[in-house]
Write a structure and sequence with these properties.
InterPro entries: Alba-like_dom_sf (IPR036882), DNA/RNA-bd_Alba (IPR013795), DNA/RNA-bd_Alba-like (IPR002775)
Family: Belongs to the histone-like Alba family.
CATH class: Alpha Beta
Subcellular location: Cytoplasm; Chromosome
Shape: elongated
Number of helices: 2
Strand order of the largest sheet: 1-2-4-3
Largest sheet: 4 strands, mixed
Helix content: 25-40%
CATH topology: Translation Initiation Factor IF3
GO molecular function, one term: double-stranded DNA binding
GO cellular component, one term: chromosome
Radius of gyration: 14 Å
Order of helices and strands: EHEHEE
Structural class: alpha+beta
Strand content: 35-45%
Distance between the termini: 19 Å
Number of strands: 4
């Protein structure tokens, strides 16, 4: 998957990310990956479900990857942050 088909989900409203996914698909992408970590995970799930249920019902969830990243804080401590990557795909025609 090309790097431009990856959408990093953060603190913006869900509709911004829905629009980004729709733009990727309308420009010819077969797959779009939503990547989020920490508190943004629920927002990434909301985006995927909104796309599937309201905007593009033909889109399927192809893959879901979950994991943990080790991040070093400014104080030098190491914390673990949960991550998710949801791959949405148009069905093959």
């Amino acid at each position: 998957m090309a790097e431009e088909n990856v959408i990093y989900v953060g603190n913006k409203p869900v509709t911004n990310y829905v629009l980004a996914v729709m733009t990727q698909f309308s420009e010819g992408a077969d797959e779009v990956k939503l990547v989020a970590r920490g508190r943004a995970i629920s927002r990434a799930v909301d985006v995927a479900e909104f796309i599937r249920n309201n905007v593009m019902p033909e889109v399927e969830v192809k893959d879901i990857e979950i994991g943990t990243e080790e991040i070093e804080t400014e104080e030098g401590d190491t914390i673990s942050v949960s991550t998710i990557a949801i791959t949405l795909a148009k069905p093959s025609e």
